[in-house]
Amino acid sequence: MKAIAYNIRKQEKEYLVKANAKKHELTFISNELNDDTVIYSFDKEALILYTVNSLSPELLLKLQEFGVKRIISRADKPSNAIVHLARGYGIFINYVHNSLTDEKKALQIIKQLDRLLDASF
Question: 79: which DSSP letter?
């Protein structure tokens, strides 16, 4: 599965690379998702974001047009409003608990990507 992680720190990247074990095609960007960086999500099936609660309808529309189907939040549980808004664009939001260590978050994120990949076959 093709996925991109925005606003990623060096330590998080190391854990994700290790947990991934070259199974998924991951791209890492140190900048946050915004109008200038959304282009990097083109042709990606999943996004890994620090938080999703500030996603705008304009960004969600661009993500939909670029083919994004899933977003995984690695910092907080998304609000019901943003989950509902994203679903309107055909994008589903998952999250990993913020209370986990970075290493455990990485493992959970890769497990979610594995499930998405298995479901697509």
Answer: P
